[in-house]
Design a protein that fits this description.
The complex is a heterodimer of chains A (105) and B (736).
Chain A (H helix, E strand, L loop, with lengths): L1 H21 L5 H12 L17 H9 L15 H13 L12
Chain B lengths: L2 H5 L3 H24 L15 E6 L8 E7 L2 E7 L12 H4 L1 H5 L9 E3 L8 E3 L2 H19 L4 E5 L5 H11 L4 E3 L6 H11 L4 E2 L6 E5 L11 H10 L3 E5 L5 H5 L2 E3 L6 H14 L5 H7 E2 L1 H7 L5 H8 L3 H14 L3 E3 L11 H14 L9 E2 L40 H10 L7 E5 L3 H4 L3 H9 L3 E6 L4 H4 L3 E4 L8 E7 L5 E6 L12 H11 L10 H8 L6 H8 L24 E2 L3 H6 L20 E4 L17 H4 L4 E5 H7 L6 E5 L4 E9 L6 E3 L21 H4 L17 E6 L4
Parallel strand pairs in B: 6-7, 6-15, 9-10, 9-13, 10-11, 12-20, 15-16, 16-17, 21-25, 22-24
Antiparallel strand pairs in B: 1-2, 2-3, 4-5, 4-17, 8-14, 18-19, 21-26, 23-24, 23-26
Helix pairs in contact in B: 5-20, 6-20, 7-15, 10-13, 10-14, 10-15, 13-14, 16-18
Classes of the chains: A mainly alpha (105), B alpha/beta (736).
């Protein structure tokens, strides 16, 4: 039993190393908080409704690679690069085609 | 009369109470129809009862019902004929919902543990004392161990969403539901293949393969009813199960498959469909990815090969593949619900998903259909706080490659709590879920509880989990509650919306979990997270449908507009390739098998343990939550061990003998049901018996607990419990 568990753990470590490469680098949990406090203030009321589920991962990647080009870029100027990475991580990791798409109504 | 008999509601007494008025009405109606002289008599008096809509709470299906209430007492529950998801029916469990409400053993007041855990010594305390205590303990745990030091677990309930909301407002990432002890492997497989979890449209299907799903006893509405209806219209239903279940008995054909070999059967179906080109080539080219790789993968998975693994004759496998393909797209491998079977259950269910893809049945009548939009709006939005001292994620994060973040894994969470790593979890808030009766290896759940500083359980009855808590808070039953709107899905018919209003005032001192959470939020300094009431919450949920409130009051159910099937045609699937992934690119990226690789079930590591233990359902049992019901326990008074008659003969076991069952996890004693209805290598027992709680007189000391015997295995991809991996030994009690 113990040996078997060690085997499983070893296999998981290998897989998890791959997972960490597949996911974005920031803190998705903090990103969710930041997204709600900084983005949902407009998106969903005065701007288009938005959730991670609104786009596929590749589109979130494109959007954040050239965030200066988005319509509301001037609203982003107070967001630090670290916070931006966290927001991106949240949106990317829960995107429409992600392993755990955000639930919508 | 024994104490136990005295506390049990007499079924006859109940039926006479419930049926007195109905019986009188029926008798009057019959005599009016048969006796000419009676025609002139006055029409039968209307029943004295008031009829009030609600939604059943005896399992997760939420079937619409009408409560008949007389002088403030529920005397009968009837199905709501306008609730089409249950085809206007209410099952035995639903009918017995009255006994749940009036169960003399219900929790009546907040209880504080005063003895040792599990000793059963309690002190009744006031709600204020109880809430002050819970709030102060949660605050202390948050301060000492970060907010993630509190774990929150809620079962399937119309108010469970509020528990997740509370956890988020409190600041904990650690939330588990019952689902990681049930259905996540299937969800994982279908999300990774189709990009969503489609629903079976049984009603329009012409050919259904039920592999390990006992849908005529493990009821899912409308599927259970529709399976019977479609067979009457000539559809074929094939059951693969090591047990001769009631589904098997009524099906077109039954194959007693060797447990753990379903994937071999599915790969052989895929082999035949591909080899004989029985698929829609245009559909496969346009809508799926990886057909060539799948074809190579199953090239040697012939029916003859599968016969050796499954025990199902090759000719039958070949025939079924052809029949299935001929009926496509109105054909399916039923995706099933509980898929917590094996350590590779995600891959097994992937093989189910792949065969469905080969049938081109997605979003087609009689196939697998996407969940339809219900149109509910997000209610009471709020901004949870952020705590920088919190750890980076869930306590079970990254323990498997593809955990569902909002469900977690109970087995792996429990492991983390036991180890105190990656960080300590010292508090547990439990609402209407019962891991002491549903999670494998009960002694480990018990050990986990011993690691906690504080545990509070909110429930209707003193479940085994409540029995171990520090504080137990009484909740009202569903029939005494006002609940938010919930969307329910019914195949191609789409979503319906239901809510609950109390049909009687809450009994005893019970309080809904919403009120409890709201009171705790106030005490813990985040009242804004619960600054609403349920009536207002429902209005926000229904903002898109101004007419819904009146219709829900009139009919007990509201049907939002339902778009016809086929709406996803031409739309990308929500997968990385935007197609149905026969070859799963995500798994390839993660170093997992991108196509399901069959491995024969592992043999028992111990020659003495030569029976595989499998789980399942009776139509009268919802795990631990209905076995103590005064009415249902008359149908299922105890659990028995299904044991093949030949195996029993070899062991010298006769019908009704008490047998001792043992596994590395634990042991149990129960009566044997010696039967030809199960394979010789397999045994089966119901869950929900052999309980520990002093508040469950029908099941404590009755039968054996399945979770005492099951080992703590888990799905290597998603962490779902794997409860068919346990081998047990069986001997007659007293035998050497």
């Amino acid at each position: 039993m113990k040996r078997r568990s060690i085997g499983i753990v070893a296999a998981l470590i290998l897989v998890l190393a791959a997972v960490s490469l597949a996911l974005a680098e920031g803190n998705a949990r903090k990103g969710k908080y930041l997204y709600r406090s900084k983005c949902r203030t407009c998106h969903g009321s005065s701007a288009s409704d938005l959730s991670p589920n609104s786009k596929v991962q590749a589109d979130w990647k494109k959007t954040f690679a050239k965030w200066e080009g988005v319509k509301c870029a001037k609203e982003w100027k107070d967001i630090s690069p670290e916070d931006r990475t966290d927001i991106y991580t949240y949106l990317h990791d829960y995107a429409k085609d992600s392993p755990t798409p955000a639930k919508c109504n | 009369m024994s104490q136990k008999e005295a506390t049990r509601i007499s079924r006859r007494a109940f039926l006479s109470l419930a049926g007195a008025t109905a019986g009188a009405v029926a008798a009057a109606a019959v005599s009016a129809a048969t006796a000419p002289e009676a025609r002139a008599a006055a029409p039968a008096a209307a029943p004295a009862w008031e009829s009030r809509y609600s939604v059943c709470d005896m399992c997760f299906n939420r079937c619409g019902l009408i409560a008949r209430v007389e002088n403030g007492v529920i005397v009968k529950l009837d199905p709501n004929p306008r609730f089409t998801k249950s085809r206007g029916m209410l099952c035995a469990r639903g009918n017995a919902g009255v006994a749940q409400v009036y169960d003399p053993e219900r929790l009546k007041t907040p209880l504080l543990r005063v003895g040792e855990r599990g000793e059963g010594r309690w002190k009744a305390i006031s709600w204020d004392e109880a809430l002050d205590l819970a709030a102060s303990k949660m605050k202390d745990i948050g301060a000492k161990h970060t907010r993630c030091g509190m774990l929150f677990s809620a079962g399937a309930d119309m108010q469970s969403g509020f528990v997740s909301r509370f956890a988020e407002a409190f600041g904990s990432f650690n939330v588990t539901s019952h689902e990681s002890l049930c259905l996540l492997s299937g969800n994982r497989a279908f999300v990774d293949t189709f990009g969503d979890v489609p629903l079976p449209d049984v009603k329009n299907s012409k050919y259904v393969i039920l592999a390990g799903a006992n849908r005529l006893e493990a009821l899912v509405t409308p599927d259970s009813m529709d399976l019977v209806s479609i067979m009457q219209k000539g559809a074929k239903v094939v059951v693969l199960d090591p047990r001769y279940t009631k589904s098997a008995a009524l099906a077109s054909e039954w194959h007693p498959i060797r447990p753990g070999t379903d994937m071999a059967f599915m790969l052989a179906l895929a082999h035949v469909i591909i080899q004989e080109k029985l698929y829609d080539a245009k559909y496969m080219a346009e809508r799926t990815s990886g057909l060539d790789r799948l074809a190579a993968h199953v090239a040697d998975k012939t029916p003859a090969w599968a016969e050796g693994e499954t025990g199902i004759p090759a000719a039958d496998i070949q025939r079924m593949a052809r029949e299935l393909a001929a009926a496509a797209p109105a054909a399916m491998v039923y995706p099933g619900r509980r898929s917590s079977d094996y350590e590779n259950s995600t891959q097994i269910r992937r093989s189910f998903a792949i065969v469905n893809a080969l049938l081109a049945n997605y979003d087609r009548p009689g196939g697998l259909v996407p969940a339809r939009p219900a149109g509910l709006k997000k209610a009471a939005p709020f901004e949870p706080p952020w705590y920088d001292d919190n750890p980076p994620g869930r306590v079970d994060a990254k323990s498997v490659p593809l955990l569902f973040d909002d469900e977690g894994s109970f087995v792996l969470t429990r492991e983390a709590v036991l180890k105190g790593a990656p960080y300590p979890v010292k508090g547990w808030f439990v609402y209407k879920t019962n891991p002491m009766a549903t999670a494998p290896e009960r002694r480990k759940t018990r050990e986990m509880i011993d690691k906690l500083d504080f545990m509070v359980v909110v429930d209707i009855a003193m479940s085994d989990t409540a029995w171990m808590a520090d504080l137990v808070l009484p909740a009202p039953s569903g029939l005494e509650r006002q609940d938010p709107v919930q969307a329910l899905q019914a195949g191609a018919e789409g979503a319906c919306l239901v809510w609950r209003d109390p049909v009687i005032a809450p009994l005893h001192q019970s309080r809904p979990v919403f009120d409890i959470l709201k009171a705790l939020a106030g005490r813990l300094g985040f009242p804004e997270a619960f600054d609403f009431d349920i009536a207002g919450y429902r209005r926000q949920q229904l903002a898109a449908f101004p007419e819904a409130e009146a219709i829900l009051k009139r009919d007990g159910v509201f049907y939002p507009p339902n778009a016809p099937l086929g709406g996803t045609d031409g739309q990308p699937f929500k997968t990385p390739s935007q197609k149905i992934e026969l070859y799963c690119s995500r798994y390839a990226d993660l170093g997992l098998d991108p196509l399901p690789v069959y491995a024969p079930p592992k043999p028992s590591p111990d020659a003495a343990r030569n029976f595989r233990l499998v789980a399942g359902r009776s139509a009268c049992v919802t795990q631990g939550s209905s076995t103590n019901n005064g009415l249902l326990s008359e149908f299922e008074p105890e659990n028995t061990l299904w044991l093949n008659e030949e195996a029993a003969g070899e062991l010298g076991i006769r019908q009704g003998d008490v047998v001792q069952v043992q596994s590395p996890a634990g042991r149990g004693e129960l009566r044997a049901l010696v039967t030809p209805k199960i394979r010789k290598d397999t045994v089966y027992m119901l869950s929900g018996f052999g309980t520990l709680s002093g508040g469950l007189s029908h099941t404590t000391g009755v039968g054996a607990s399945i979770v005492e015997l099951l080992e703590s295995r888990f799905d290597a991809i998603c962490g779902n419990s794997a409860i068919h991996e346990t081998y047990v030994s069986v001997k007659k009690k007293g035998a050497a």
